[in-house]
Amino acid sequence: MTDPDPGATRVAAFFDLDKTIIAKSSTLAFSRPFFQEGLINRRAVLKSTYAQFMFLLSGADADQMDRMRAHITALCEGWDVAQVTAIVEETLHDIVNPLVYAEATELIAEHRAEGDDVVVVSASGAEIVEPIARMVGATHSVGTRMVSTSGRYTGAVDFYCYGENKARAAKELAAARGYDLARCHAYSDSITDLPLLEAVGHPTAINPDRALRKEAAQRGWPVLSFSDPVSLRARIPAPSGSQVAAAVSLGAVAAGAAWYGLRRKQR
What is the pLDDT of residues 55-101, one digit of tens each? Predict the structure, then answer.
């Protein structure tokens, strides 16, 4: 892709992923295939089910997300990248395909028709965010980056694409590609993405949690409701497992971590 004309200004639309483009948490969705292949146990699957239910009700707050990240570093250390890749080859398309909101794909198509770039920005792993972004017609993506050495995950996180870091990623892309942030759009469901929404001239809340709904009302931001997941199977090829392996490790272990954080908060 060529660099933008230094004298031109461009427009981008930044989209969160979970509950904005797809109907579930992209990270929590992969616990069952990992259980079937022996990477996690039955208890972790049950925790994932509970965490997914709570996520759909209210989303995870900042404290829960931080605990989730810390738990990930302990759980995925030493996982074999090749094994994860093989699991992803068989399951990713089946898992993601039914979850994409029809309204999101229409909105993305509208931005593309206007000549805007579309950027998916998510706390999920970069290697899973990228193929989903391609599925829905986005031009770029940014996600959490995991570290691997000698074919195994170290348990370290190189870049956590969450909260202030989402806004940082958007600003860095704007500087690199010539986006005028005052003309750009951002879409999210979560109050934790407030820095991203504040970074652009046209923020919109989609399926907002309670705190973001209140914030949007106070600031006069538009609020949209997406409720129609649509199958993309007939027109979108499945990405290869090698493209998504590292991020799915992030997703599988995040299930147990989210449950752990929710229980700690309840206590």
Answer: 444 455 556 666 666 666 666 777 777 777 676 666 667 777 788 99
Q: Is residue 193 part of a domain?
A: yes
- Say whether 63 is catalytic: no
| CATH code: domain of residue 170 | 3.40.50.1000
Say how far apart CA 123 and CA 136 lie, in whole Å.
18
Give the chain's domain count. 1
* Amino acid, res. 201: G
Does any domain span residue 161? Answer: yes
Q: How many C-alpha atoms does 201 have within 13 Å on its Cβ side? A: 9
Q: Which of 3, 5, 16, 209 is catalytic?
A: 16
What's the CA gap between 18 and 129, in Å, rounded? Answer: 10
Q: Is 18 a catalytic residue?
A: yes
The strand pair at 12-15 and 185-188 is best described as parallel
pTM listed for this prediction: 0.76
Residue type at 266 in one-letter notation: Q
> Is residue 122 within 8 Å of residue 161, measured between CB atoms?
yes
30: nearest Cα among 261, 264, 256 = 256
Task: Identify which of 205, 154, 184 has the alpha carbon closest to the alpha carbon of residue 13.
Answer: 184
Q: Which structural domain range is residue 149 located in? A: 12-266
In a domain, 5, yes or no: no
